[in-house]
Amino acid sequence: MSSSPRARAALTISTLVLLVVSMLARAADVESTIAGRVLDATGEPVEGASIVVTWPAPADRSAARKETRTSGADGTWEVTGVPAGTYAVRIEKSGFKPAQIARFVVRPGESPRADLNLNALSAT
């Protein structure tokens, strides 16, 4: 049984539409990485700083997510597997004033950096 050219064209178009919709849905689920480096006021790396990345609960109303990392000897850190969205990044280390980015935006497939400098607490 042969199909008409019109039926084959409709099947081809339907297949292409499903493929495009599938690719768009997959792109929306792409996870990203937020990485950064913690430096002091002189530009030297700050090892052992606490980095807390938080983002609001998703639409399904599960709990807000919070990831904590510690900067390495070179001041670097990263959080992997983050979905697109708006985050807060807070960095603290004893002897320094805390630093924060209140609205850090991550777009699908991007891996943005959150580099911050910490200023030493003044002796009083």
Task: Write the topology of this structure.
Layout lengths: L4 H24 L3 E9 L9 E6 L9 E6 L5 E7 L2 E8 L6 E8 L9 E3 L6
Parallel strand pairs: 1-7
Antiparallel strand pairs: 1-4, 2-3, 2-5, 5-6
Describe, in plain words, how this protein is organized in 3D:
19% of the residues lie in helices and 38% in strands. The chain is α+β, with helices and mostly antiparallel strands and 124 residues long. A 4-stranded antiparallel β-sheet has the order 3-2-5-6, with no helix packed on it. A 3-stranded mixed β-sheet has the order 4-1-7, with no helix packed on it. It is elongated.
In short:
The chain is of the alpha+beta class and 124 residues long. It has one helix and seven strands; from the N terminus they run αβββββββ.
Q: Can you give keywords for this protein?
A:
alpha+beta, three-stranded mixed β-sheet, four-stranded antiparallel β-sheet, 124 residues, 19% helix, single chain, 7 strands, elongated
